[in-house]
Amino acid sequence: MLEQLNTTETKSENDSKKTSIYSLQLQQLKDWLSENGEKPFRAEQIYDWLYKKRISTFEEMSNLSKSLRDKLSNHFELTTLKTVIKQTSSDGTIKFLFELFDGYSIETVLMRHDYGNSVCVTTQVGCRIGCTFCASTLGGLKRHLEAGEIVAQVVTVQQALDETDERVSSVVIMGIGEPFDNYDNMLSFLKIINYDTGLNIGARHITVSTSGIVPKIYQFADENMQINFAISLHAPNTELRSRLMPINKAYKLDDLMKAVRYYIDKTGRRISFEYGLFGGVNDSVEHAEELAVLLKGLKCHVNLIPVNYVPERDYVRTPKDKIFAFEKALKKHGINVTIRREHGHDIDAACGQLRAKERKEETR
Ligand code: SAH
Known about the structure:
Cofactor: [4Fe-4S] cluster
Oligomer: single chain
CATH topology of the largest domain: TIM Barrel
Pfam family, one: RlmN_N
Subcellular location: Cytoplasm
Domain Radical SAM core: 113-346
Enzyme class: transferase
Radius of gyration: 21 Å
Bound molecules: S-adenosyl-L-homocysteine
């Protein structure tokens, strides 16, 4: 596992195609323009077309010369995602199944909150982390997404919202895949959506979640970005965590907690812990007490997630009264805790579920 996780190169089939223009950070685009005999300030104009006007062809970039437009289209792909399925839930949640250039499919979810519209993006086709409760990991990892393919998910959802004059106000990297296993592309994605000349999504409106790839947590802490950071914890002790999440065999709970402390010290930010409640497995008041001890004194918040039913997995839901008892036990110890509100329950909105269904149909 350790060895596997240290390699983050993309699969070779991805190298044969042109780079997505959405993969370029502003400075990278400036550098490319300079190297190609163009003025760097054109980068802002290009960003404006891509992220403010949200055009879908290079041809439409009408304040650029024809020769620059040709250069751009010769070098770059204007990544478009083909919408295969668009499901709208009764609570307004919209789930997209997008097809990529090589035929793989990914999921993106738009969630409606009182405070705005939030998009949940996917970072990999599949996942190799192997969490025992998760649908995303069932078929293993097919490939990493290029930064532009992650950016394009936000742009495409924004284009759908343009019809009603609405805006994507926040982004969560909690879709399919382990973002820290595709670290460089994830980081580029964060920077690209954050530029005020681009989509202008504020750092505090972006959340990234990891299953706990410890060396990357240190690296991420050193980036010192003011974004929201979440750890999928799911267990109060290392034995139970290893049973639920094989990643814990490579990066033990103790080491994870050390990395978390480093992150909090370095960034001054509060951290979130996701704790899925799996009936009869990790959801007793004793587990809550043990969790309170583990998190004592940490600047953190716990998000309790009632398990999403996955047909291939045999976890069952914790009854409501037990969820409240768990929450109460944490509160008693002064831990900040919330129970996650569920979105799109009628449309398989939990990560990996729609794609898993589609994949099953493909292999039938
Ligand atoms: N790979 C990253 C990003 C995924 S975020 C991570 O692990 O953090 C999605 C969250 O939903 C994670 O906390 C994940 O552990 C959790 N999750 C996955 N399958 C679930 C299920 N069936 N029920 C409840 N939570 C689940």
